[in-house]
Amino acid sequence: MRRLRAHPRLRQMVAETDLSPDDLIAPLFVREGIDTPQPIGSLPGVVQHTVDSLVSEARRLHSLGVPALVLFGVPVAKDAIGSGASDPQGIVQVALRRLAEELGGQMVLIADLCLDEYTDHGHCGIVDRRGAVDNDATLERYQAVALAQAEAGADMVAPSGMMDGQVAAIRQALDGGGFASRPILAYAAKFASALYGPFRDAVDVTIAGGGDRCGYQQDHRNRREAVREVLLDVAEGADMVMVKPALAYLDVIAEVRRRVDLPVAAYHVSGEYSMIKAAAAQGWIDGPAVALEHTMAIKRAGADVILTYLAGELAEVLNG
Ligand code: PBG
After folding, report:
1. In the chain, where are the structural domains located?
2. CATH code of the region 16-318
3. Which of 166, 196, 259, 282 has the greatest count of CB atoms below 10 A from its CB?
4. Does the beta carbon of 269 sit less than 6 angstroms from any atom of ligand 1?
């Protein structure tokens, strides 16, 4: 075996997996009502952007060859139904209009489609009197959010709430609203994960009453169920499917790759990023090397694209 490992050019020639800036999607946060970007303690190097700093960061990523971003909003006010998510003046819609104006056609603008950043109870949907998330009432809200995002200039919407039927409902709303050509990136197999902790700091979300998302996100013990989730989203009209988180679910990514011909995305989530940063800051691991190893593993498992807070720094390394 060692004959083909003798020197770097040879290893490069026989490498089975490739990672390029083209494979990366950068998650970005935009916060309403701030004048300067705000650091996020548990996500070192990531900030809550102002609309202006968001545009500069998008330009920087574009110049590094990163083709896409996914946008999350942090509103000033939250309410029971997450009104800000579908308000034409809501922070994500305002930011999308600016991005579309300044970078339209140059970068793929993806809008995360969910309610949790906008609800005062922190759930991804509408909560009924008993405190349970009402699936179908939530679907109506998702349809309104999809239309608001598409109108504001989202090239693609990415529903992340794990309601049953969300892809079909959103497809129907987009088609009916004159946006038949806008694709859906479905968070298809999204697990109820402790690795989302830093993200909830980034978007100021606390789930009311110490609750969790186990009533709608998937149980991490289940791989076959993940495939069922993905196949349902494909049948409902998803254009791309996502597995999330990534590293703890490489088996799921590999299985989805085998079963589906659509592009497969994987989300290397906030906790995965923070673990690298924290250990690297202690000098316990080589951060950039681990970042490359993690993302390469996600590609090797079968993902075509990776959503990652490492997008900018990886693109810098990959561009050499
Ligand atoms: C829900 C959403 C979450 C993430 C992306 N979309 C959080 C959650 O489900 O609680 C997590 C992303 C990350 O951890 O990086 N809108």
Report:
1. 16-318
2. 3.20.20.70
3. 166
4. yes
